[in-house]
Structure formats: structure tokens, C-alpha cells
């Protein structure tokens, strides 16, 4: 297989209570659209977007999960194999803020310590905020994650969140790669740490870095049917 055929692919979860803006965020980022209509997502769905990070193609698969507990059994299985996560809450929903730790717990349980980011969405509604700036910041500090304030509605900071996660993941992959490199007798110098990591990931089947060899058909963006009620 040629080097250029390889691709870094990251499964990103977006978790949080219902109505914090998870589906909207994914739609905004992948399709550039926003709707005021609230449709409860049942089951799981994902959209994808390919970005470039340091001349590397990174495919982000953004998994949308239902926030409601009643669908827990369905969503849990979809957590598996995720490599990065958005912990989302809403500026105008304090309960969604307090629920973040519980969501994080579920992710940790299924995925281990993957790169995460805390997202305070609906920042355009700051005037009716029920979560203070200090609360948001102290939670980020406590969880040792970066905090981004977003407005999916105003398209503010949304792409920054996903670009940050992609960066975290790729940088983490490079570190693992360096740690794993055991010097061989007269080993040739590694010219490009990233390209070697991609090859390694592919052959080792490392669960924290998947390289797809059967990428989906171009244009086949929506992977799984979801039902909106
Ligand atoms: N004002 C405002 N509304 C938003 C924002 N993001 C999402 N919404 C609205 O919040 C509601 C819930 O969004 P949705 O994406 O369905 O939430 P989910 O249940 O977390 O997937 C919808 O009516 C969206 O239009 C935002 O940044 N600002
Ligand atoms: Mg939804």
C-alpha cells in the first residue's frame, strides 16, 4: 500500500444532556447548517469531515448520541473505539453542566483516557445564562481539559473545537510512536514521524489510532439512519 493511500481517521464522540446542541454542532461543522427546530435524536448517527493538520489528512467521524438516559443501552455500544470526545453543556441549562462529570465517567469507562474537551454551547444566550464563567472554568480545571465557549447558532468557535481535538489526537499518536520506537542495530533515521506512525498504527491495529483501509464511498456522508421524533 502506498503512503498516500493511508489516512488518519478519528472517531469523535459528542456527549451531553439532551438539547445542549450536540446534533446542531455536528451538523454545523459538517454541513454548515443550523436549524431552530429541536428534534430529539434516537439512537446514534454520525457525520464526517476531513481536515488537514500539518499536511496530513485527518478524517473526523463525529458521532451523535442521544443524551437521554432511556437510550443508554443503545448509545453505550457506540462509545467503544472512540478516540476523542466533546463534553457539551448549555449556557442556559445548569443541569446539563452538572451532568458533564457523569458523561465523562461513561466515556472513561468505555474508552479510557482519550483526548477530551469541555464545550459550553449557546454562548449567544449569555444574558440568560444559568452557568457562570467561574463554574465553567473551574470544571475545566478540575477535569484538566480545555474549555471552549461556542455558539452553534452564530457559528462561533465550532470548528476550533474539532480542530483542537484532531491536533490533540495526532500529537498524542506521534508521542506513542516515539515511545514505541525501539532502536534497531544501525536503524535508519526516521524521516517523518507521522508517516511512520501511520504505518505502525495500521499494522498493529492499535485501538487508539485507526487507519482505514476500506474508506466509505465519497459523498456517502450519512452512515447510519437515525430517527427523529
Ligand atoms: N441559541 C442557540 N440555540 C442553539 C444553539 N445550538 C443549538 N441550539 C438549539 O438548541 C436546540 C437543541 O439542539 P440539538 O442540537 O437538537 O441538541 P441535542 O439534543 O444536544 O442534539 C435546538 O433548538 C437548536 O436549534 C446555540 O448555539 N444557540
Ligand atoms: Mg440530538
How would you characterize this protein structure?
- The structure is a single chain.
- With 229 residues, the chain is α/β, with parallel strands linked by helices.
- It has one domain (8-181): 3-Layer(aba) Sandwich (Rossmann fold), CATH 3.40.50.
- It has seven helices and nine strands, in the order βαβββαβααβαβααββ.
- It has helices at residues 22-31, 72-79, 94-98, 100-111, 133-143, 158-180, 193-204, and strands spanning 8-15, 41-42, 44-53, 56-65, 84-90, 116-121, 146-149, 210-211, 227-228.
- Strands 1, 3, 4, 5, 6, 7 and 8 form a seven-stranded mixed beta sheet that branches.
- Helix 6 crosses helix 7.
- It is globular, with a radius of gyration of 18 Å.
- Mean pLDDT is 78; it is low at 186-229.
- Guanosine-5'-diphosphate (GDP) binds next to helix 1.
For the record, what CATH class applies?
Answer: Alpha Beta
What is the CATH-assigned architecture? 3-Layer(aba) Sandwich
Indicate the percent of residues in helices: 25-40%
N-to-C SSE string, H for helix and E for strand: EHEEEHEHHEHEHHEE
- In CATH, the homologous superfamily goes by the name P-loop containing nucleotide triphosphate hydrolases
Instruction: Report the sheet with the most strands, covering strand number, pairing sense and barrel closure.
Output: 7 strands, mixed
Tally of DSSP helical segments: 7
Q: The CATH topology, please? A: Rossmann fold
Q: On the 0-100 scale, what is the average pLDDT?
A: 78
